[in-house]
């Protein structure tokens, strides 16, 4: 008999409240496994989909992108990689229901995960730490390495020498996506320049940035331009929603030369571009190049975690225990947090 599954449901479009109720338990198909959820992390996408009623057409729906837990069922196609009892982290897929079932969404007791976006968690790494990674990791990787974006060479293991491939700017480096971008770019051999609040510079450099700059400094364009003068610059990544930040990055890239290309997480930010700098937005769910990127970076993540090379940043802040606290966590994130990831234990 299948175990009882419960989920945090969004019963109607733009409903202000997630409701805990029964949900179907779904068997894994080819390249899938099922986990018993141990924790989930909250992302801006979760409260934005709920509040704005975007991206999802069929209700009731289950949201949630980041999940960790213990494997309870494995399809034979993955039996050579995973087994029952493994502790794993995975990227949930709330925008890809299986028929009329939201079995790939994170906000439920049992989640179906799809390869390749699954990695084993070392025994000495708490679930609450590992769960900060999946969506931010996928987003950063697709912004850095896909053909439609910066198309940089991917991360290597063992880690290459810092700066061997040039310099790279990450604005919003203390955000969840930004911290993953710093780590990925560093692992690809770039010397990363991180931009964020002064109070978060320690975290930014812990992620691997060789230099951190204060986003609030009025001379930041000049300061970064002078630092990069004479160095090879391969582009930049905008990890926060800020028109002023993107325009500042355009000025920097125009000043120092090199590749005048910014990859952004903000839809529509192409319209903010100046100085002949090309801006591309990462919003390519399911594109062929993004799928190819995931095939490459998740095995790297698995090895980086195993070697102890991956940093679980920003640090988690546990704000709930149980599916009933999902809504509280979404509401807290909407109010704003800095250099932390909100986590709910399940």
UniProtKB/TrEMBL annotation:
SUPFAM superfamilies: GroES-like (SSF50129), NAD(P)-binding Rossmann-fold domains (SSF51735)
Name the record gives this protein: Putative alcohol dehydrogenase
Keyword Cell division: no
Source organism of this protein record: Fusarium austroafricanum
Signal sequence range: none
Pfam families: ADH_N
Annotated stretches, region: Disordered: 1-23
GO molecular function: oxidoreductase activity, acting on NAD(P)H
Record carries keyword Nucleotide-binding: no
Similarity comment: family membership: Belongs to the zinc-containing alcohol dehydrogenase family.
């Amino acid at each position: 008999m299948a175990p009882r599954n419960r989920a945090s449901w969004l019963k109607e479009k733009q409903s202000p409240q997630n409701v805990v109720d029964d949900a179907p338990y779904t068997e894994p198909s080819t390249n899938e496994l099922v986990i018993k959820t141990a924790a989930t992390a909250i992302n801006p996408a979760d409260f934005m989909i709920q509040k704005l009623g975007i991206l999802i057409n069929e209700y009731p729906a289950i949201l949630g992108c980041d999940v960790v837990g213990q494997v309870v069922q494995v399809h034979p196609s993955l039996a050579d990689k995973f087994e029952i009892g493994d502790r794993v982290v995975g990227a949930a897929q709330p925008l890809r229901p299986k028929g009329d079932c939201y079995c790939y969404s994170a906000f439920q007791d049992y989640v179906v995960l799809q390869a390749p976006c699954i990695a084993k968690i070392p025994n000495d790494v708490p679930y609450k730490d590992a769960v900060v990674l999946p969506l931010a990791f996928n987003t950063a990787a697709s912004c850095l390495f896909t053909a439609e974006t910066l198309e940089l060479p991917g991360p290597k293991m063992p880690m290459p020498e810092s700066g061997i491939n040039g310099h790279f700017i990450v604005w919003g480096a203390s955000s969840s996506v930004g911290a993953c971008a710093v780590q990925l770019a560093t692992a690809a051999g770039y010397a990363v320049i991180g931009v964020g609040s002064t109070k978060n510079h320690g975290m930014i450099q812990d992620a691997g940035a060789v230099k951190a700059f204060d986003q609030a400094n009025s001379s930041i364009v000049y300061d970064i331009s002078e630092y990069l003068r004479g160095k090879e610059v391969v582009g930049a990544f905008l990890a926060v929603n800020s028109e002023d930040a993107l325009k500042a990055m355009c000025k920097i890239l125009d000043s120092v030369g090199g590749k005048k290309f910014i990859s952004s997480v903000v839809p529509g930010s192409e319209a903010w571009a100046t100085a002949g700098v090309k801006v591309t937005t990462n919003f390519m769910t399911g594109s062929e190049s993004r799928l190819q990127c995931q095939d490459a970076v998740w095995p790297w993540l698995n090895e980086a975690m195993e070697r102890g090379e991956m940093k679980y940043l920003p640090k988690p802040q546990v704000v709930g225990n149980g599916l009933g606290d999902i809504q509280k966590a979404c509401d807290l994130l909407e109010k704003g947090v800095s250099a932390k990831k909100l986590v709910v234990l399940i």
